[in-house]
Design goal:
The chain is mainly beta. It is 5% helix and 36% strand. This is Tectonin beta-propeller repeat-containing protein 1.
Length: 1063
């Protein structure tokens, strides 16, 4: 699960952030400017929009390994004439400007190109792009043509009368990890200011990467949107006013993950934005929604992907039934819903995530609560559960803020706190409480509001300390008595330990981390009394738009107290013990035959199947037999499935010695096929979703003939258990029970299975190599003899091999797994809907194929409906519904259709008179959770990576590693060694041209090659262990031009190979 964040605001405008993979929340500290107080916050996965206490808009862009670096381009145009030659003076009046954009319609001299705002800076100088469609142009970068609206060539010909060249200048957005002010002069001129803001729409189709809909509300009740906000333009372009038509002004607005936009008017009614389409993302009209009843008026609205929740002015919680954001493109009723349903609880604020998870702030306690049980099938959930929030104070210690007395690290149970009465003394006067003993350590400081019922448990007076004591507090640990001392406070204060009657600290109170977190802090942590004027940890606002939680049980701060203790008590044996000895035997079924009696003893079987499989055991035999009824695929001209009986005979003393026998009937004759366990080279499940109960057995002979032994079990569970039995028998030969050493060959199937062939095998005859199945689900694996292995999941998340093993087979045996972690991968499944045009009925799905098949999967399978599309296996789960994919290659119309005069294409977006076929692609997302010896390498999406081929002399020697980000930027990984394969950080490597990269390869002796999207090849100079990022890019002359372009490159020791788009 990729990390996402919950954002919090307190009453004084401090901003806090808590990640789903973290245990402690931390404060956002702007180290570049004065502290900006925030009153509203709306977050996405890459930036945060906010409204400050000064009612102005602010933007907080999260720093990333891939910077926001945008090219500015302009074209220099010239024409040839007998008098001036090639010169701008020769341009005709009908020609384009001497400096223009690519189309030639807009004048664009270099001097007129300005930075969008003060948050940008220029990166380098103007450069000439000497690349044209992957080819190197002549000196000077000029491109020649007969006339300007023509196809340009990289060299000059006799009929070349015009030429142009492209200039590039990069600009970089540097205002990251800080609050950047957004221009609002339009509102200032109208005497308006911001009171609310919301972001969403990042799941809208056909939008640029990182697209956001930013909606804002003014104090006058008017509504604005910030246009053109996306990753490459984080500030957007301009504020656009949205007419409210005849409706009242707005006080609150919320934007969903798709195109749901709701607002609350002055009179407590709801407004829904309608007529939203792919080409009109901001809609064109409003529809009013009545409040729950005449006596109830809405105060705040919260919109997720398919759910809408609201708070009324009496702080009651309401759920809107009948909304479904994925269907609002075609059905207005899905945006409006049907009725309001009152929920349990009284909240001061409510927020929804992009997958409809619900969070809220309690009205009385100001605690944050989470709605349990929310799913796509039950959007209302079950109960409210308190979120366990504890602060990470280490950042203040690093910044030196603890020493000046701004924080206090007091901790205690949830219902006990330390209450301080009186007026603080000046900082110059200090006290000590080293002699004070409390039964527990305080959790919070309170100014004791009059409206709270407090029952005093004990009173302790604090005496003045010598003036030599420093003016800071000390939280000390007493191991002998288990008692902690309270912080020292001014002498005029009275310290009293109290218990709230069913209540917790109010806005004038400060809460602190738990005892468990305090154990990780130093023995002495300074702090200062927090009074009602500093309600630091009293929550006023939260935002969870980007807080995507698929499995709440895997988020530490969403676990209940009992679950936390159970996690603390549970022990992972795989992480406590070293890997087993390589020569140790691993027993699947432990059998003991007593020779002096007639009793058969089976002590504590590690793996015992409940299946109806018979065991034939003799007292004097040294083998055991396992049988099962299955089906075998018979290859040949009339291939078919036939009934068979499977028999596995294995020695008790040595599991690697055994025989797999298949008994079947052929032409009424009893026949059998025998395979020695030692001859097996690979065993794996079939990759066809229709054959999920089939597993394949490979031997060198079967591999050469491409006819593996295919066995179909009664269920997928039966097939998995047989796969475990056979794999455990070959564990030692296939490296299934020990870490994978350098030099092994890694591979992954197109369905994501990870296969490893041990080192030291014959490379000249690949059919003799054995392949073992290991844990993980990967789309790409890169390894090196230097002992570093990285992989990419189907969701482009990078992973690093951690030196463990197991996770794929024999999951119930601890000896077959070591240092495995839970991995989550996601995948998009596509299916095409096809229609054919008939003169009378028009477009129809009848008659496209035989038997009414008009749906085709991406693999070419025909189905009668999209609901018949199957998951790869039972390990996968659907996490979304079917939606139309508007990003299909070739372009689509407003309804997602593509047209062609042939069924096999090519397809285009517009319908022509000869087009007889059309199709549109539907997409659905699924997720997989499994175990494997991998650790996540961050949330940055990677499309390609490569590691050096050279070996290393020591475990601390640097290893060169490069990658290509999902947006095409080139990255270099610093700090990668054999002892630290994860490395330290990504370093961005600037490109000299505006074409993103698609492939990268690191060869021997620092050779780094890359390919851009236009097929151009590039070589990086100066790469070495001391400078893994290199110095300069040099373009390499590509192969002779053709109809295809290069898209993958691989560098060896003395040669470079590449593959073009034609294969």
């Amino acid at each position: 699960m990729k990390e996402s964040f919950l954002w919090l605001l307190n009453h004084i405008g401090d901003t806090f952030r808590l990640g789903t993979n973290q245990r402690l929340f931390s404060q956002i500290i702007d180290g570049y400017d004065d502290v900006i107080a925030i009153k509203r916050v709306a977050a996405s996965h890459w930036c945060v929009w906010a409204v400050g206490h000064d009612h102005r808009p602010y933007l907080y862009v999260l720093s990333s390994d891939v910077p926001i670096r945008i090219p500015e381009t302009t074209y220099e145009n010239q024409r040839w004439s007998p008098f001036y030659g090639f010169s701008k003076k020769s341009l005709l009046r009908s020609d384009r400007y001497s400096w223009s954009d690519e189309s030639g319609t807009v004048e664009r001299p270099k001097e007129s190109v300005r930075l969008p705002s003060s948050h940008w800076e220029w990166d380098g100088e103007w450069m000439i792009d000497d690349n044209l469609r992957g080819e190197v142009v002549e000196l000077g970068g000029w491109q020649y043509a007969l006339d300007f609206p023509a196809v340009y060539a990289p060299e000059q010909h006799w009929n070349s009368f015009v030429r142009r060249r492209k200039w590039i200048h990069f600009r970089r957005f540097f205002a990251t990890d800080r609050w950047a002010n957004i221009s609002d002069m339009e509102m200032v001129e109208k005497a308006e200011c911001f009171i609310d803001i919301s972001v969403g729409g990042f799941l809208l189709p056909s939008q640029p990467d990182g697209f956001l809909m930013v909606w804002a509300v003014m104090n006058s009740g008017s509504v604005y949107v910030r246009t053109d906000v996306h990753r490459e333009n984080p500030e957007g372009s301009a504020w656009r006013s949205i007419s409210l038509e005849k409706h009242h002004g707005v006080i609150n607005i919320s934007v969903g993950a798709t195109n749901l936009v709701w607002a609350v008017t002055w009179d407590g009614q709801g407004l829904v934005r309608t007529n939203v389409s792919r080409n009109n993302i901001y809609g064109s009209s409003w529809v009013g929604v009545e409040s729950p009843d005449n006596s109830t008026q809405l105060m705040q609205i919260a919109v997720g992907r398919n759910a809408v929740w609201a708070l009324s002015r009496d702080n009651k919680v309401w759920f809107r039934k009948g909304t479904w954001g994925d269907h609002t493109f075609w059905c207005e009723a899905s945006a409006v819903g049907t009725l309001w349903v009152e929920m349990v609880g009284e909240m001061s604020q409510i927020a929804l995530s992009s997958n409809d998870q619900v969070f809220a702030i309690d009205l009385t306690t100001q605690y944050v609560y989470f709605r349990t049980g929310v799913s796509s099938h039950d959007l209302t959930g079950k109960t409210w559960q308190k979120v366990s929030l504890h602060e990470d104070l280490s950042q203040f210690k690093d910044l030196g803020l603890l020493s000046d007395g701004r924080l206090c690290s007091c901790t205690l149970d949830d219902e006990e706190f330390c209450e301080i009465h009186g007026s603080p003394r000046p900082p110059s006067e200090s006290t000590s409480c080293s002699s004070v003993s409390l039964s527990t350590v305080a959790q919070s400081v309170d100014s004791s509001p009059a409206n709270q019922s407090v029952r005093s448990k004990s009173v302790t007076s604090i005496q003045s300390a010598p003036s030599s004591v420093k003016s800071r507090w000390s939280v000390t640990r007493r191991s002998s008595s288990g008692v902690r001392s309270s912080p020292s406070v001014p002498t005029s204060l009275e310290l009293r330990q109290s218990t709230l009657h069913g209540q917790t600290p109010s806005p004038g109170r400060l809460s602190f981390p738990s005892l468990a977190d305090a154990e990780q802090m130093p023995d002495s942590v300074p702090g200062q009394v927090m009074v009602a004027a500093q309600p630091r940890l009293s929550w006023k606002w939260l935002d969870v738009t980007n807080c995507v939680i698929d499995d709440p049980s895997r988020v530490d701060w969403l676990s209940s107290r009992d679950e936390e203790f159970s996690k603390m008590g549970s022990v992972n044996n795989n992480n406590l013990h070293p890997p087993p000895h390589p020569n140790k035997a691993y027993i699947v079924l432990m059998l003991e035959v007593k020779t002096n009696s007639t009793q058969l003893c089976i002590p504590s079987p590690l793996f015992f199947s409940p299946l109806p499989i018979s065991f034939m055991l003799g007292l004097k035999q040294s083998t055991w037999v396992r049988k099962a009824a299955m089906q075998m695929f018979q290859h040949g001209r009339r291939s078919r499935w036939i009934e068979c009986s499977l028999e596995l005979e294995q020695g008790i003393g040595s599991r690697e010695k055994g025989t797999l026998t298949v008994h079947y009937t052929h032409h009424r004759k009893q026949m059998h096929t025998q395979i020695q366990l030692s001859d097996m080279t690979c065993i794996m499940m079939n990759t066809d979703p229709d054959l999920s109960t089939v597993f394949n057995v490979f031997t060198p002979t079967l591999t050469q003939t491409d006819q593996p032994l295919m066995l179909k079990a009664a269920s997928e569970k039966d097939a998995t258990e047989w796969l475990d039995y056979l794999s455990s028998a070959r564990a030692s030969a296939w490296n299934l029970n020990r870490p994978i050493p350098p030099g092994a060959v890694w591979s992954c199937s197109f369905t994501g299975d990870v296969l490893v062939s041990p080192s030291g095998q014959d490379c000249t005859r690949p059919y003799l190599r054995s392949w073992g199945l290991h844990g993980g689900h990967m789309a790409l694996i890169e390894t090196s003899v230097a002992g570093v292995t990285w992989a990419l999941g189907f969701d482009k998340t990078p992973h690093v091999y951690n030196g463990g093993f197991g996770g794929a087979v024999c999951t119930g045996q601890s000896d077959m797994s070591y240092n495995t972690q839970q991995l989550i991968d996601s995948h998009r499944v596509y299916v095409y809907e096809n229609q054919k045009w008939f003169p009378v009925v028009g477009w129809c799905n009848k008659g496209v194929f035989k038997h009414n098949f008009h749906w085709v999967t991406s693999s070419g399978r025909f189905v009668t409906s999209r609901d018949q599309v199957k998951l790869p296996s039972s390990k996968w789960n659907w996490v979304s519904d079917w939606t139309i994919d508007f990003s299909t290659s070739g372009g689509v119309d407003s309804n997602g259709w593509q047209y062609s005069n042939q069924f096999n294409g090519p397809f285009h977006r517009s319908s022509h008179i000869r087009d007889q076929y059309r199709r549109r692609r539907w997409v659905r997302r699924c997720r997989l959770s499994l175990m494997g010896p991998w650790i996540s390498a961050g949330s940055l999406s990677i499309s390609d990576l490569s590691i050096q081929l050279d070996s290393v002399e020591s475990a601390s020697e640097p290893v060169v590693m490069w990658a290509v980000a999902a947006n095409g930027d080139v990255l270099c990984r610093y700090g990668v060694t054999q002892s630290n394969p994860l490395g330290e950080s990504w370093v961005h490597v600037s490109r000299d041209q505006d074409k993103p990269f698609t492939s990268i390869s690191v060869g021997s002796r620092g050779q780094v090659w890359g390919l851009a999207t236009d097929g151009s090849a590039w070589y990086r100079t100066g790469v070495g262990p001391d400078n893994p990022a290199g110095k300069h890019w040099l373009q390499v002359v590509p192969p002779p031009p053709g109809n295809f372009r290069l898209h993958q490159v691989s560098v060896g020791v003395l040669s470079v190979w590449a593959v073009d788009t034609g294969g």
